């Protein structure tokens, strides 16, 4: 009788253990099926052993049409090969691999970005027999990151590079010019008579005018040149691969003519002009601070001369030594004899 009681206790204990195990398995299955991530397991040959509900929906296939198959059934050749390479690293070295994957949805053809973690599954003796992958869709987060990164680098009104991005490009251009013994030009532009536009027509009209002015400046440049907005009605131009200072003067005249054409904004015909200051590397400076300073000096000299003209820095002298450029980009014989229309 005592033996029977002991057997009954053992059987009852096992029954409780089995039910506890079943409950744990049920709970784990519920978690895997409902967690907002793509979870799967693969064997050492890269064949699927398990795919949770989210992944089955992505593949539009039941479990029996997924298990036993490799990635080549569900992804393009390049994606499948890249996944296989990561899988082999996990299975061969027994390490955890983290990666950011850009994958095309096999059904919708939409491109999604995933943060994926792959970890080895091991026997008690440490031998790897499978891997588990967990992928989280971070497409929306990446869009936000790219949006905020763009906001940090580009002017929100004109979509031109802002001061920080422009300065970075200027530094890179100076390094390249120094290495290749080439010239480049830096132009500072200030719109003349812009404040009365805001005062008389309102800031909404002023903003539209700035947008149109930005487009006109950009259309006046070559593809390899860069224009940025550094604040208010101030713009900057980086002219790369400059053959001679005369090319910078010709471009300055082109920009001035583009700005002088009347703007049509909200049924208003508005006429403004601009003042430009030009500095050339290496004659006017060999670093961004010096070059910017002389372009700024020249621009203020053009402004003080009445506006609607361009002045070219003559090196390390202040505004009084700058040259004046007439509307056609010519340098007059007498310094200070610039035109102002």
- One letter per element, helices H and strands E, the order comes to HEEHHEEEHHEHHEEHEEEHEE
| Strands, count | 13
Give the termini separation: 119 Å
Count up the helices: 9
Residue windows where pLDDT falls under 50 for at least 5 positions: 316-341
Number of domains: 2
CATH architecture heading of the largest domain? 2-Layer Sandwich
Tell me the radius of gyration.
Answer: 34 Å
State the secondary-structure class. Answer: alpha+beta
Largest sheet: 6 strands, mixed
Helix content: 40-55%
CATH class of the largest domain: Alpha Beta
Determine the mean pLDDT: 83
Q: At the third CATH level, what is the topology name of the largest domain? A: Alpha-Beta Plaits
Estimate the strand proportion.
25-35%
The named CATH superfamily of the largest domain: Reverse transcriptase/Diguanylate cyclase domain
Shape assignment: elongated
Strand order of the largest sheet: 7-8-6-11-12-13
Write a short abstract of this structure:
The protein has 341 residues and is α+β, with helices and mostly antiparallel strands. The chain is 43% helix and 25% strand.
Description of the structure:
The chain has 341 residues and is α+β, with helices and mostly antiparallel strands. The chain folds into 2 domains: 35-143, Beta-Lactamase; 154-325, Reverse transcriptase/Diguanylate cyclase domain (Alpha-Beta Plaits, 2-Layer Sandwich). 43% of the residues lie in helices and 25% in strands. The chain contains 9 helices and 13 strands. The strands form 3 sheets. A 6-stranded mixed sheet has the order 7-8-6-11-12-13, with helices on both faces. Strands 2-1-5-4-3 form a 5-stranded antiparallel sheet, sandwiched between helices. α6 (195-201) crosses α7.
């Amino acid at each position: 009788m005592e033996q029977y009681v002991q057997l009954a206790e053992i059987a009852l204990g096992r029954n409780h253990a089995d039910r506890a195990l079943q409950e744990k398995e049920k709970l784990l299955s519920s978690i895997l099926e409902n967690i907002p991530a793509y979870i799967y397991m693969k064997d050492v040959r890269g064949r699927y052993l398990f795919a949770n509900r989210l992944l089955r929906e992505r593949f539009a296939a039941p479990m029996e049409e997924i298990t036993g198959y490799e990635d080549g059934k569900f992804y393009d050749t390049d994606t499948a090969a890249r996944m296989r390479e990561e899988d082999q690293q996990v299975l061969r070295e027994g390490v955890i691999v983290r990666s950011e994957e850009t994958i095309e949805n096999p059904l919708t053809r939409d491109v999604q970005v995933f943060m994926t973690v792959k970890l080895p599954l091991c026997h008690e003796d440490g031998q790897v027999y499978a891997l588990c992958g967990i992928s989280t869709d971070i497409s929306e987060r990446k869009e936000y990151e790219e949006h905020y990164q763009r906001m940090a680098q580009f002017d929100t009104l004109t979509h031109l590079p802002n001061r920080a991005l422009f300065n970075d490009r200027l530094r890179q251009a100076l390094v390249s010019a120094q290495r290749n013994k080439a010239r480049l030009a830096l132009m500072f532009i200030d719109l003349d008579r812009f404040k009365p536009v805001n005062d008389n027509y309102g800031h909404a009209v002023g903003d539209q005018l700035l947008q149109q002015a930005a487009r006109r400046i950009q259309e006046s440049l070559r593809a390899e040149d860069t224009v940025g907005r550094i604040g208010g009605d101030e713009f900057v131009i980086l002219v790369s691969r400059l053959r001679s200072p005369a090319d910078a003067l010709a471009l300055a005249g082109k920009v001035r003519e583009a700005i002088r054409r009347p703007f049509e904004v909200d049924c208003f015909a508005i006429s403004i002009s601009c003042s430009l200051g030009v500095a050339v590397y290496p004659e006017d400076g060999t670093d961004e601070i010096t070059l910017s300073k002389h372009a700024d000096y020249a621009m203020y000299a053009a402004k003080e001369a009445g506006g609607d003209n361009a002045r070219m820095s003559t090196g390390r002298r202040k505004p009084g030594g700058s040259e004046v450029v007439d509307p056609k980009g010519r340098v007059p014989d007498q310094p200070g004899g610039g035109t102002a229309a």
